[in-house]
Amino acid sequence: MGLRVERAGPLALLQDAGRFGVRRLGVTQGGPADLHGWAWANRLAGNVWGTPVLEVTFGGLALVAERDLSIAVAGADLAATLDGEPLALWRPVSIKEGQTLAFGTPRNGLRAYLALAGGFRAEPVLGSVSCVVREGLGGFDGHGGKLAAGDRLAVSGEAGERVAREAVSVPEPPDYTAPATLALLPGAQVADFTGASLYAAFNSRWRVDDRADRMGVRLTGPRLNCRIGSLISEGIGLGAVQVPPDGQPIALLNDRQTIGGYPRLGALTPLAASRLAQCLPGQEARLVATSSERALCDYRLFRRSLER
Description:
InterPro entries: CT_A_B (IPR003778), Cyclophilin-like_dom_sf (IPR029000), PxpC (IPR052708). This is 5-oxoprolinase/urea amidolyase family protein. By secondary structure, the protein is an alpha+beta fold. It has helices spanning 35-45, 195-203, 270-277, 292-307; strands at 3-7, 11-15, 53-57, 62-65, 69-77, 81-82, 85-86, 92-95, 100-102, 108-116, 152-153, 180-186, 206-212, 216-220, 234-235, 240-242, 250-252, 259-260, 264-268, 284-289. It folds into two domains: 3-153, no CATH class; 180-307, Cyclophilin-like (Cyclophilin, Beta Barrel). The two termini are 32 Å apart.
């Protein structure tokens, strides 16, 4: 074992890169809601892509180290402390057996990512340890269970030995409190929205609604009207922006349903979906149309930045 849960907080879930190749079974993707923060936590801890990380939403989590560990926390600033002292974010940190790592309340963003050098250890379910509570899959118990006080989190056998010694060029931590600019790839039904609605979609200030979770985020603003009332249900990808009859778009995230029948404006790029996942209710967001070439270029630059 490596960490003991002293206080569980509202939501802390184990997430690797996600569960792929199973949507034909009606099983969703899972994985980190903020791919950017998750990837950088692993990089700073010296881990390879896909190593399981603990996604901490809203804070409230307290963990006691049962062995010496090297960790990194990236993503949101949830006022993390080590034995009551502020924890350095976006850099490798060594913690000693018996020390307490605690997360407070959101100061910048919503989701923090705790990576251990060597990684957490859990039994894969359908090829992934990603925890999807609704489907009862993955996580430390294999059944999608939330953490509870007294749980002990297993870590890799080499977790206390591996330390990231390589110099890493760390990006400036994002300002998640700033208005979010969300790149969107127009979809197959975009031409079925009225001209006024398309103008409003890309020229209005949207607000993140409090109806938001790992399944999706509702945006509130001008009513969007589509000439299509409903569709035969079709596959739903990460970031799909559905518009139900009330005209308020919903951006679907990692724990989304696998099919849906509402018309879609398009889909947020993976990095845009990550940015949205860090928005608190009431935050402002804008949709910006982009091309698949631009989105692919941005994603390649992101992956390259992790390799430097």
